[in-house]
Amino acid sequence: MISIKNSRELAGMRDACRISAMALQFAGESIRIGMTTGELDKMIRHFIEKQGATPSFLGYGGFPASACLSVNETVIHGIPGKRILHEGDIISVDVGAYYHGFHGDNAATFAVGTISDEAQKLLDATEESLYKGIEQAVVGNRVGDIGHAVQTYVEDRGYSVVRQYVGHGVGTNLHEDPSIPNFGTPGRGQRLLPGMTIAIEPMINCGTHEVEVMPDEWTVLTKDRKLSAHFEHTVAITPDGPVILTRP
Ligand code: MG
Fold it and tell me: Quick check: 149 pLDDT over 90?
């Protein structure tokens, strides 16, 4: 079921999303060569709790940490742990905060030190594709318009769109209807209505779009082990156009 938020609920979403965005920014600023993903996760958890919020992902479906930290060929759902960050790595941080009954959700891929041109170009294209998708998040458009915009932008540049994982509605639950694929046909799918809040989150690969889930049942890798990037915002559909709620 799709939930339409009234102005009070949208204000609640704004607060949760602002904390989520601050946590993501904090994570990006905290990344250091030589640290483990487990250390970074602890810092993120502490930051969110300091704001009086709860990490949305902690315990969600049994997820054992506060943020999904996905390095290089890891697409999403990387479990923080002993992996050490090396110069030249890229790390996707996906983090949400639950605050006064609402969830925010956002993600970004960060460089660890100096990265290759190939990696930088992937990050730039993925981030830009998110904004191409957000531009289409307007009343009267359909979910397929968002996906088509993301897909066209990245495929024109030689990248591929992950199919198995998609964006989603977000609100009192972390994952709500409708699904927001990063691929699609213009004019198809659920119509976008004022008061919907959705997480748009392109997951973009350098090589094949195919992915593999590791035996831990969380970690998602690219099948060819080439690089993957992930950017996400929570966006409100309003009569005045899309409003990005996850801005610090
Ligand atoms: Mg999400």
Answer: yes
Tell me, in angstroms, the distance from the centre of ligand 1 to residue 181's CA: 11
pLDDT of residue 158: 98
CA of 63 to the centre of ligand 1 (A): 14
Q: Is residue 68 part of a domain?
A: yes
User: Which pTM value belongs to this model?
Assistant: 0.98
58 Cα–ligand 1 center, Å: 14
Residue 91 lies inside a defined structural domain of this protein: yes
Count how many domains the chain has: 1
**Rounded to the nearest whole angstrom, what is the distance from the C-alpha of residue 84 to the centroid of ligand 1?**
25
> How many CA atoms does the CB half-sphere of 240 hold within 13 Å?
2
Query: Is residue 1 assigned to a domain?
Result: no
Residue 2, domain member (yes or no): no
The CATH code of the domain that includes 186 is 3.90.230.10
Ligand 1 centroid from CA 22, angstroms: 16
Domain that holds residue 225: 7-244
Residue 237 and residue 194: Cα distance in Å, rounded?
Answer: 5
Q: How far is the centre of ligand 1, averaged over its atoms, from the C-alpha of 105 (Å)?
A: 5
